[in-house]
Amino acid sequence: MDNQVEARKFIVPIGPQHPALKEPGHFEFSVEGEVVTGASVRLGYVHRGIEKAAESRNWTQNLYLFERICGICSHVHATALTLGVEKLANLQVPPRAQAIRTLMGELERIHSHLLWLGVAAHEGGFDTLFMYSWRDRETVMDLLESISGNRVHYSANIIGGVKFDIDDQRKDAILRGMDFLEPRTRHYLDVVTGDRTFIARTRGIGGMTREQAELLGAVGPTARASGVTRDVRVDSPYAAYPDFPVNVVTDEGGDLAARFVVRIKELFETYRLVREILAKLPPGELAVRALRRVPAGETVSRVEAPRGELFYFLKSAGADKPDRVKVRTPSLCNWATVTQVAVGHKLADMPMLLSGIDPCFSCNDRLVRVNRGRDSELMSWEALRRYGIEYYQK
Amino acid sequence: MKLGSMIGDVFRSLFRRPATELYPAEKRPAPERFRGKLVYDPVKCSGCQLCIKDCPSEAIELIVLDKVNKKFVLRYHQDRCTYCAQCVVNCRFSCLEMSNELWELAAVRKEPFEIYYGKDEDVAFLMEKIAKDNSGDAKIPADAP
Amino acid sequence: MFFPGGLFVIAAGLVYEWIDRKLVARLQNRVGPRWFQPLADLVKLLAKEEITPEGVNRSLFYLLPVVALAAALCTALYIPMAGFAPSYSFRGDLIVALYMLSVLTICMGVAGANTLDRFSLLGATRTLTQMFSYEAPFLLALLGPAIAAGSWQINEINAYAHAHPWDILVFQVFGLAVALVGTMGKLELPPFDAPEAETEIVAGAMTEYSGRGYALFRLGKNVELIIALTLVASFYLGGISNPLDFLLKTLGLLLIMAVLQSLFARLRIDQTVGLWWRLGALLALVNILVVFFIRMKGIHL
Fold it and tell me: Disulfide engineering: A112 pairs with which of A9, A233, A299, A306, CB 3.0-4.6 Å?
């Protein structure tokens, strides 16, 4: 970190404590005047050792542990885990349970996208949009509370099904909520695409071509805003998505404005889906009985979180505790898009760029990689375990 | 390309009540399925401890005073509980439920967070035993006293 | 000392800050703070420990907030506060008043440049850049009524505006617009709050200040609010002759400013500069030309 007087370049640190970030993460932008010439990112501030903690809890306890990786996308984490376990144990979950899981997932998508809209508007200084979109988000939070009993961490899943049912009264309430939210969302789409000051802050910022998006491995709405048609709900449908197909929303713009548009249009698609699921909710039971011991095996479980593709690897050794659970969250894939694309933009655009990928730092911190360069070796899983135990015995 | 496209919202808000709920002056009741504090009915409990096996945070313990006569005391650590309701789902005799009225659970000391549930005489017996033992740490083994 | 001096101006500044915050909150469908909130903030800040960062010039660090507040309060001597005649009035005091207000902004800029902190440096750069951009159109906008009244003395401009209210309001509509938006730029209110953009550079030039220094800077800003509102109201809205007049006109302006605050996203500093130097300067020049024309022809309403 050198301050060369003649080049007049210095490094602006954003984070770990910064009003722009809702969660800690460290970014260093090398700046000349107001123009950014380089960016680097360092994560790992919220690493809680969840994957290790999962090995000493049984599968049901792990449901709740993994739900709490992230507060905004908690349901998809739990869904991914149960889908994986049900695959390993070969359980046939009743269709009503799958439909309710999908419904909760879509309601969570609504709340996540509205939250993101407010936060991104706040980063751009547009506090009015922030306040109004969060006020409308309260509708969906109240719905989720009346269905599940909690505003976040709905705890809807158990291994083999869901915990609670949707009766007619709640169905009407949900439909009314959707009717309220749809014109409001249309209004927000107008504001985001029409308001001149907002467009001045978002159009042309952070442009990423389709090739760049595919090279950098972007997922979720960030990739879809550059024209990459990738959506796990369509590519490999899970839960009730085979019965309720989804239309993928893409945009060719590639810049920040396109990301806004994609997420708001996804909201419309979600409203349609919710109405369809409620209209054709299959009758039946809520859960099947699951054994405590899960048969040995390895499996992979992919779901579409509001931020992109969420990937779980599960390994069971036949016990009632997992052998290994590996989580790869979507936000981890999208960081490269910020650091590569940030060069050449002004410092004032950085917070909006950062929030444009909808970062969820708590989801991220699964792996902290320290760059050593020399002295690195490749270890097998058993060797790594032994190393960890011996290290503390020394 | 409009300028000030939120003028409609902004103007209408001048004539409307704010959207804020003025807690604690106005308290809206919680919805019916709200997961508040855990409530235990000792009458139907059989002591199977299925609820304890699956609790993610070791928030409940069953203290068995007399297994044959079904004298149990449930010690509930309210501060450890994650309010997930897995115990409620596991119980086959519907002894547990999560209240939707008791949700203002903040306290300034540690004592209110350790709750002993059970039939009155059982709880009283346990309290006396703890006071007599008086080792400072109320660790009761899970079998007979 | 009391009126219309320091204490009254400070108290009025606090009340107006509350009205502004409450209006913006209600426009955003929220509740907003209670009436004593700015006073509570002031008392709390004065009572807090002041942390002096390393590497600053200590005397500058302590002096700058005092000088800023002093400059703002001095300006209050020359303007018709609450409808009464200004305490001191002499020819050319319009220029002195505007200069003192600029001293406040410059003090904030220097305060930001004084520290080693990157955020403050960026904030200071932005403050000074923004000052260079809006100062000229704002000055030109205030010059319109001055030329129409034929004097550089605030007292006399006020009297002239009181005598010919419709003259100024109708012919110098552009000037009113530029003056109003210029006030928002001067006070660093959204959408021109790039110098203290909370989400980008923490608090801009004010980042390292805490306790007493910060309280004085905030007071300086509140006093600036009152002064700027009074100036614009007395020049453009037909002069201020009594306290009721003062209240109505300044509150009306504050309402319009609150609405404008909540409608727009924050402009980047280069967009602000572009807007002011292109649109602002143009409108102000047109305004001046109209005034010349009117005065030449001697048209009156």
Answer: A306
Within its chain, how far is the Cα of A375 from the centroid?
35
Kindly list the strands in the beta sheet with A26-32, ordered across the sheet, starting from the edge strand earlier in the chain: A9-14, A26-32, A35-42
Give the pLDDT mean for C11-26: 92
A55 in a domain, yes or no?
yes
Task: Give the closest-approach CA distance of B60 to chain C in angstroms.
Answer: 41
Chain A residues with CB-CB distance to B82 below 8 A: 64, 68, 153
Q: Does A217 touch chain B (CB under 8 A)?
A: no
What does R_g of chain B's alpha carbons equal in angstroms? 22
Q: Which of A142, A146, A155 sits opposite B85 (nearest CB)?
A: A155
pLDDT of residue A1: 38
pLDDT tens, B55-67? Answer: 998 899 888 888 7
Could you report the per-residue pLDDT of A207-255, keeping only the tens digit for each?
888 998 888 888 899 999 999 998 999 999 998 999 999 999 999 888 8
Q: Test C263 with B10 for CB contact under 8 angstroms.
A: yes
Which residue type occupies B100?
Answer: N
- Domain locations in chain B? 30-133
CATH code assigned at A310:
1.10.645.10
Nearest Cα of chain C lies from the Cα of B106 at a distance, in angstroms, of: 25
Does the CB of A285 have a partner CB in chain B at under 8 Å? no
Give the C-alpha separation, A116 to A274, whole Å.
20
Tell whether B34 lies on the interface with A, counting CB pairs under 8 A. Answer: yes
The count of structural domains within chain A is: 1
Domain range spanning residue A177?
50-327
Is C266 contained in some domain? yes
Q: Note the CATH number of domain B30-133.
A: 3.30.70.3270
Domains: count for chain C: 1
